[in-house]
Amino acid sequence: SAPSYVNGMDSGTFITWVDVSAGEKHNIGMSITGRIYTWGASESGQIGLAKEGVSAYTIPGRVLDTVTEPAISVAASFKSSFVIFNNRTGYSWGSNTMGELGSSTSISMVKTPTIISVLNGKNPKSISSGAFSRSVYADLSSSVVAWGDNTKGQFGIGSTGSKYTAVTVVSPSS
Predict the structure, then answer these.
(1) How many angstroms separate the CA atoms of 129 and 61, rounded?
(2) How far apart are alpha carbons 71 and 53 in whole angstroms?
């Protein structure tokens, strides 16, 4: 079938998208004003709205609307969502089976946005992952760090195994 527009609305105004990322069955988008929206399946809390009995959101819903800073980067992974704000604070929510949320919790699912604690003091500029991935990457000023699933050596650090703390993947000065 042909592609179609995501016609999200917020307070009666159409949303102008500047960034959208797709997970396995969900999406996260960033508007031109830096607001965050999610839609799709939420069986692992990846939508971040935590409404009981709702397993799918068919229209974009605003997440983290209490944060006054505009967002600068969004990413979706297999069943998780991520955002970096202009003040360089990161939030994540959804599946955490391999430590992919980068938070201080070992809980396997987080239904509401939580601070990405592995990025504390690191000044991230952007965040990325992949639709079928449980690995997460953050671009810092002079390097890239990763956390989550590294069972196949996908971080390129010479070892395997999930990482629950951020490890440096690329450093131009090395």
Answers:
(1) 21
(2) 29
Q: What pTM, to 2 d.p., does this model score? A: 0.90
Radius of gyration of the chain (CA): 16
Between CA 132 and CA 134 the distance in angstroms is 7
Nearest to 102 by CA among 66, 85, 127: 127
CA quadruple 157, 81, 129, 120: dihedral, nearest 10: -40
Q: What are phi and psi of 9, to 5 degrees?
A: -130, 150
For residues 60 and 39, give the distance between their C-alpha atoms in angstroms, rounded to a whole number. Answer: 5
pLDDT digits (tens, 9 = 90+) for 85-123: 999 999 999 999 999 999 978 899 999 999 999 999 999
Question: What distance in Å separates the CA atoms of residue 130 and residue 21, rounded to the nearest whole number?
Answer: 9
Tell me if residue 117 falls in helix, strand or coil: helix
Q: Decide if 137 contacts 169 (C-beta within 8 A).
A: yes
Tokens found for residue 79: 């069943």
> What CA–CA distance (Å, rounded) separates 38 from 59?
8
Residue found under tokens 């195994």: 161
CA 155 to chain centre: 18
Q: Give the C-alpha separation, 148 to 72, whole Å.
A: 22
